[in-house]
Amino acid sequence: MYSASTALLEALNEAGVSYIFANFGSDHPALIEAIAEARANGRPIPAVVTCPNEMVALSCAHGYAQITRRAQAVLVHVECGTQALGGAVHNAARGRVPVFIFAGMSPVTQEGELKGSRNEFIQWLQDVHDQRGIVREYVKYDNELRSGRNVKQIVHRAMQIAHSEPTGPIYLVGAREVLEEEVEPIKIDTAQWSPVALAPLPADAVAALAQALAGARRPLVVTSYLGRNMAAVPELVEFCNRLGIGVLESAPCFMNFPHDNGLYVGNQWNEPFQTLALAEADVVLVIDSDIPWIPSVNQPNANAKIFHIDLDPLKDAFPLWYIKALKSFRADAASALKQLNECLAAMQFDAATVTERKRHYAGMHAARAKELEQRETANAGSITPAFLTACIRRHIGADAIVMSEGITNYPTICNHIAKTMPGTIFASGGSSLGWSGGAAIGAKLAAPDRMVASLTGDGSYMFSIPSTVHWMARQYRTPFLQVVYNNRGWHAPKFSALAVHPKGYASRANTIDVSFDPPPDYAQIAAAAGGAHAQTIKRREDLDAAVAEAVRVVREEKRCAVIDAWLAV
User: Which candidate, 365, 183, 338, places its Cα nearest to that of 264?
Assistant: First the structure.
């Protein structure tokens, strides 16, 4: 029988989906049958990856899409499974990650009127008024399959929306009776469902922006996620090199600009101080950034001219947002920068001015490099985050893919892993913890020949459901290195409380209930669940050999390695 479920699988295959990250339930008999039938008859369908936890399933699809920019499918169980996706939906939405999410629904009949009618008590408990409303604020598109006759059209429309900029997750649902419906096969021309074409800068804006930046004394680019499109990175490098423009990253979740380039002046996160490069800039070009600065502590000077290029310039998903830009443009960063580079190639501008700018930013770059080197060698008696990250950097190689979820150590990981190649470091793009374990599996599926490393805080590690992650990693042969930055607690809530109440009761309290001391044996959780190589390191002198051995295990033995590194606290 060719059913609506057959059509759904066929449409996903036509749309280029390689994997279905699945958590099956009682709402999926038709899909389970269609998968088995396709396998029995040799019909191609996406590979099914069993995910014992929904958060991990969506994080896997998230990591895969960050590497490939292609949406994968996540299959979950009615409203319970949808809620269990939890913060992973937030991460995909804020990170603008294309994902196809499908959930079943409770059957719509109860007396056997149709095939798939209710036959289990839970199907009354799982029936809610607005299942799609659970995630509506976090997806670009939601819909219900009401008939098997147009399943393929709805799937392709959903994928077209997911892949059109700004990309993001979509959510479809369907009841058992619809998924069981027998239908006639139809052919789809996938060319008719292509993503919407990317927008360039308006022609008059190109010359105006080029002239404003060329005429500035201290031009500065601020970016956060330009590197999600790897093609934009070399265009930014060429643009900045032509004019001597400094580059500052703000809470970066991608590799946006090479850290070894003399125009790179660093990155800013939650640090409560003014960034010098931002304070002295007279023209600021913000490209692809949600939070280019935190105005209460760090912002451009009052006379700076601010311009804004973004694939999502209005940030209409954010209730409160503005940066006082003189001009804002909805444009693809790679296309816009290519236009600017072509314009600059035909312009005449003062070479001495460009040389002076480069010299100025090179001085800032060198001073920063010296400071980072000092941090890596400081506190010789203990394992510091900087020392740990530098050790990892030396062993994993420049082309390794790093999934960063260090939270309070985000700046340290970014600074000391010091990436120079596009597509080699990622954060979730959101703020819900527990992404990096599943994301590492997804990244490894997308790039099986690359070293993948997950660098995570101890709190994030527990959020990631490591028992599920490491069972899956062994089951699906996706070995990666995982390093736990173990500071025995949640430091982020502590820092937030002290920032608002620096002399309050919490600052004097013996505990504020964010400690994990004594902590679980993080490495042994992974060993028990997935046979991972496990090491707990408490002494600085043992770290280098431990990281070297862990990398060897991942590369040669093809199994995960987890290092639980106890940081000085």
Answer: 365
